[in-house]
Design brief:
Blueprint (H helix, E strand, L loop, with lengths): L1 E9 L3 H9 L4 H4 L3 E5 L9 E4 L7 E3 L2 E6 L3 E7 L7 E12 L2 E11 L3 H27 L3
Antiparallel strand pairs: 1-8, 2-3, 3-4, 5-6, 6-7, 7-8
Length: 144
């Protein structure tokens, strides 16, 4: 397994950050990495997620929602073609730091027979995408 993990401190309460994160309809207006999410977000549901690395064509995936814990965690798992080839468990975790601050943890756990090779190909770009999204979420959550 290979893991990518990023964190950012957002100067807004956890509820506001959560509401922004889960308002998928607004993603095209602020999110530079995940361009679109459609579908129900209940555990067991499937989403349509469109991600785009800077300067690259969009990638559409249909991951399964693994966890949706109100104001705490949202997690899904997607796969490349068939499970076990190259799978990604994408997660967002929010931690209340008090004083109107939230720690936003954004990461992915990659597994499957191609995980090592794929991480060499896309690991750096993926981490940059996470950081760009984190920064944009911080900026929009801190407005008003």
């Amino acid at each position: 397994m290979k893991t990518l993990k990023t964190e950012i401190i957002i100067n807004a309460d956890k509820q506001k950050v959560w509401n922004t994160l889960m308002n998928h309809e607004t993603y095209p207006s602020w999110n530079p990495f995940i361009k679109k999410i459609t579908g129900l977000t209940l555990e067991g549901d499937y989403l349509e997620v469109v991600m785009q690395f800077k300067g690259k064509k969009p990638i559409t995936m249909n991951p399964k929602v693994l966890r949706n814990k109100q104001e705490n965690e949202f997690r899904w798992k997607g796969k490349l073609f068939v499970e076990g080839l190259f799978d990604g468990e994408h997660y967002f975790i929010l931690e209340d730091l008090g004083n109107n601050q939230t720690k936003f943890i954004h990461g992915e756990i990659f597994s499957g027979v191609l995980a090592g090779a794929m991480m060499k190909m896309i690991g750096t770009q993926t981490k940059k995408g996470f950081i760009a999204m984190n920064t944009a979420l911080k900026n929009i959550s801190e407005l008003n």
